[in-house]
């Protein structure tokens, strides 16, 4: 994964671990830890919006 800087994995209680990454072109990435080659890509702004919504509890029904 050249060009992507991955953060440390985030692991919920008993759930899969996810990693968030960014690159120099302003893209953001999210992947299951250990499967970074199968990532989703979007803008950093879209990733920020996703994280804000998750923190606000708007994805709790998916868990």
Mean pLDDT: 85
Radius of gyration: 12 Å
Return the domain count.
Answer: 1
Q: State the total count of DSSP E strands.
A: 5
Query: In which range does the helix fraction lie?
Result: 10-25%
Order of helices and strands: EEEEEH
Q: How many angstroms separate the termini?
A: 29 Å
Approximately what portion of the residues adopt beta-strand conformation? 25-35%
Uncertain runs? none
Describe the largest sheet.
5 strands, antiparallel
Q: Outline, from the CA principal axes?
A: flat
List strands and helices in order, with pairings.
Layout: E1 5-6, E2 10-11, E3 17-22, E4 27-32, E5 40-43, H1 44-55
Antiparallel strand pairs: 1-3, 2-3, 3-4, 4-5
Provide key terms for this protein.
63 residues, alpha+beta, 5 strands, flat
In words, what does this structure look like?
The structure is a single chain. The chain has one helix spanning 44-55; strands at 5-6, 10-11, 17-22, 27-32, 40-43. The protein is an alpha+beta fold and 63 residues long. It has one domain (5-56). A hairpin with a 7-residue loop joins strand 4 (27-32) and strand 5.
